[in-house]
TrEMBL record:
Name of the protein this chain belongs to: (thale cress) hypothetical protein
PPR repeat residue intervals: 141-175, 176-210, 211-245, 246-280, 281-315, 316-350, 351-385, 386-416, 423-453, 458-492, 493-527, 528-562, 563-597, 598-632
Taxonomic superkingdom: Eukaryota
One Pfam family in the UniProt entry: PPR
Keywords assigned by UniProt, alphabetized: Repeat
PANTHER family for the chain: PENTATRICOPEPTIDE REPEAT-CONTAINING PROTEIN 3, MITOCHONDRIAL (PTHR47941)
Source species of the chain: Arabidopsis thaliana
Family assignment from sequence similarity: Belongs to the PPR family. P subfamily.
Length: 748
């Protein structure tokens, strides 16, 4: 097949005119030449850079080739124009038409085809175009490879991109700075900073110097990763090499420090930019404003805002949005609304994000009606509420308990074209709200609607419903949902298994729960401590202590180390089974694991030892609890002190009360009366009794003062005579005071 360019065809027609005249009727010949010239002219006109009409040009080309014209030059030129205009789908379609009409395809068109495949994310076909170029005798260049490198990195195939770079060097086609920067950027976007830096150093070694863009890519990536010391190291290295960092680099660094909460260092860099004589742009100002707002430093943010205006930089929608977000973050909703109005007055149109921030804050404050007014303002100003807007409203309505209104809103989203279609988050918000209010049947109806419209829910949906169905004891429905998850493409996460394990434990179906835990252990998902604790607790409650011990040991073998709750469950289970030695060994194991007993641990040990009649052991743990900084609750104090009284252990009672008084631990009124009545029977304990009563008096006075400060009138729960000075009471007076307290407690 011989391919002619259209120009060559025209030249042949003119050169061999006498031959053609013999073959063709003169009038036919004249029409052919005129038509050819007219088509070329028309195509050139349609492809003019000032006003390209490329779709029309493609139609003209198609008509010309259908009539038998050969327009290879115009076709290749049009292909190049389509690619340059980024109309890649049309360019690809046009290339196929060129193939169908046997139009000669030159190197430029093949380069364009390669770019089309890259833009369409078909890098495999793009490599095929390179092979086609080679087959046709064209020498591909660095530009072609750079396009391919960009495509590979966009598809997160940076490893292949590095291989292509090295293949280029092997073929004596040296990668340029753009080649390296493309792959370095790809690694940075994939958060593979070590590989990016390794390639950047390789770039230096190959004789290709870093450009300002290279420095900028690395600094920006390290800033986003929060590695500010390394980022500042790059800046220092730039300065050492005599390179001037531009505003883009400084803005990246300022943003990095702001994101890390180091506003002082970010502000210092901003001041450095000003000292250099550079004029920060709106992006730089917005970065600082957002950083200050994020930390609630609105005064500093306002100062930057004012300075920005003084310097003649117009605040944009991102400036106002950052300030509004900051105001909402510190609870200044009224001021945020005022700023929104100011923004509109200054002809800076808020975007959906701006409105959503305010709507979200109003909904969190329970002001859903006000949030709906903002939505109406949004519509009035021709900013279409998006899914986030409606999802916030759904969440707000559900949180307020307006589930019927939330349901109406969801159905409006489904039926009214002026609303956005609900996504899975929309359905989840309503399902969660209904489940919280124990309206499980309605929640399941919404779930069925979700499946009908979207095909399936997500993990959040199933986790909510699994929790609720098992909580309601509807095991059959829970199993049905579990089967749906198994049959669907929903990837089960640890929360899904946790919901099932916890639910089955609570419904007493321990075998099913154990089966799920085993399934979880052999999968990629590792059970959490909470999962083990659910089963341990249930096994101990049903008296299967041996099984609980086996599971406790398996848990540790799987490197899932028990927490305080795990030990508490096992200690409680052992004590209930009368296995004191195991409880003591668990306490030792707890200490070895670096864990300290909590209030629950001590409470269980004290109560169990008291029930077994081991007062010394109970008091020992009581002392340890108080010495550890825990304040024993009324139940523990009641148990220990009353046991001492019942056993006539006056000395032990005295020691315990002394410890409580020294620690300023206040007993409740009834127990105070009981202890004092017992202690007052012996004059030897009078001073301690006075101190105990004084602690109680001081606590009551503090409570009254606190109540008055909060604006509440202190209620007089005891007779006025109760508030008395106890420093010099006689034994008889002290006993009388005890009786008065006891009488007042009885009345309460």
């Amino acid at each position: 097949m011989r391919f002619w360019t259209s120009a060559a065809a025209g030249e042949i027609l003119r050169r061999d005119e006498h031959v053609v005249r013999k073959l063709l009727n003169p009038r036919v010949y004249s029409k052919l030449v005129n038509a050819f010239s007219e088509t070329e002219t028309k195509l050139r006109s349609l492809c003019e850079d000032s006003n390209p009409q490329l779709k029309n040009a493609v139609s003209v080309f198609q008509q010309a080739v259908d009539s038998g014209s050969s327009l290879a030059f115009s076709g290749n030129n049009l292909m190049a124009k389509l690619v340059r205009s980024r109309n890649h789908e049309l360019a690809f379609s046009f290339y196929r038409k060129m193939l169908e009409t046997d139009t000669f395809i030159n190197f430029v068109s093949l380069s364009g085809l390669l770019e089309c495949y890259v833009q369409m994310r078909k890098t495999g076909f793009a490599f095929g175009v390179l092979a086609l170029m080679l087959k046709r005798g064209f020498a591909f260049n660095v530009y072609n490879h750079n396009i391919l490198l960009k495509g590979l990195c966009r598809n997160l195939e940076c490893g292949k991109a590095v291989s292509l770079l090295r293949e280029m060097r092997r073929n004596s086609l040296m990668p340029d700075v753009f080649s390296y920067n493309t792959v370095i950027r790809g690694f940075c976007e994939g958060k593979e900073l070590e590989k990016a830096l390794e390639l950047a150093n390789e770039m230096k070694g190959s004789g290709c110097s870093w450009s300002l863009v290279t420095w900028g890519i690395l600094i920006d990536a390290f800033c986003k990763a929060g590695k500010m010391d390394e980022a500042m190291g790059f800046l220092k290295e730039m300065k050492f090499m005599g390179l001037e960092a531009d505003l883009v680099v400084y803005t990246s660094l300022i943003r990095g420090f702001c994101d890390c909460g180091e506003l002082d260092r970010g502000k210092a860099l901003f001041d450095e930019v000003l000292e250099r004589g550079d004029s920060p742009c709106a992006i730089t100002y917005n970065t600082l404003i957002r950083g200050f707002c994020k930390l609630g430093q609105l005064k500093e943010a306002s100062e930057i805002f004012e300075f920005m205006i003084e310097r003649g930089v117009r605040p944009n929608v991102y400036t106002y949005t950052g300030l509004i977000d900051g105001l909402c973050g510190v609870g200044k909703t009224k001021e945020a609304l005022q700023l929104l109005n100011l923004m509109i007055e200054k002809d800076e149109e808020p975007n959906a994000v701006t409105y959503n921030i305010i709507i979200n804050k109003l909904c969190k404050d329970g002001l859903v009606a006000d949030a709906l007014e903002i939505v109406e303002l949004m519509k009035k100003r021709r900013t279409r509420p998006d899914n986030i807007t409606y999802n916030i409203l759904l969440g707000g309505l559900c949180a307020k308990g307006d589930l019927d209104e939330a349901s109406k809103l969801l159905y409006l989203m489904l039926k009214d074209s002026s609303y956005t279609d609900p996504d899975v988050i929309s359905y989840n918000a309503l399902i969660h709200g209904l489940c919280k209010e124990n309206r499980l049947h309605q929640a399941l109806d919404i779930y069925d609607l979700l499946v009908e419209k979207l095909g399936a829910g997500d993990r959040v949906t199933t986790n909510i419903l699994l929790n609720s169905t098992l909580k309601a004891g509807d095991v059959n429905k829970a199993m049905e949902l579990w089967k749906q998850i198994s049959d669907s493409k929903i990837v089960r996460n640890s929360d899904t298994y946790t919901a099932m394990i916890d639910g089955f434990c609570k419904t007493g179906m321990l075998n099913v729960a154990k089966g799920l835990l085993c399934k979880m252990r052999v999968s990629e998902l590792q059970p959490s401590v909470f999962d083990y604790n659910c089963l341990l607790s249930s096994l101990c409650k049903e008296g299967s202590l041996d099984q609980a011990w086996r599971l406790f040991e398996e848990m540790q073998r799987d490197n899932n180390f028990p927490d305080v709750v795990s030990f508490n469950i096992m200690i409680d289970g052992s004590l209930k089974a009368g296995d004191i030695k195991s409880a003591e060994s668990l306490l030792v194991g707890m200490s070895r694991a670096g864990l300290s007993p909590d209030l629950f641990t001590y409470s269980k040990l004290i109560n169990r030892f008291l029930k077994l009649g081991y007062l010394d052991e109970a008091i020992s743990f009581f002392d340890k609890m108080v010495d550890s900084g825990f304040e024993p609750d009324a139940h523990i104090c009641d148990s220990v002190l009353k046991y001492c009284i019942s056993q006539g252990e006056t000395d032990k009672l005295t020691e315990l009360v002394k410890k409580l008084v020294d620690k300023d631990i206040v007993l409740d009124k009834e127990l105070t009366c009981t202890v004092m009545d017992y202690m007052c029977s012996s004059s030897a304990n009078m001073d301690l009794a006075k101190r105990l009563l004084r602690v109680t008096d001081d606590k009551e006075e503090r409570d009254k003062e606190g109540a008055s400060e909060e604006g509440f009138e202190a209620k007089e729960e005891v007779p006025e005579e109760r508030v008395i000075t106890l420093r010099a009471l006689s034994m008889e007076d002290l006993k009388e005071a005890c009786l008065m307290i006891l009488q007042s407690c009885t009345k309460c």
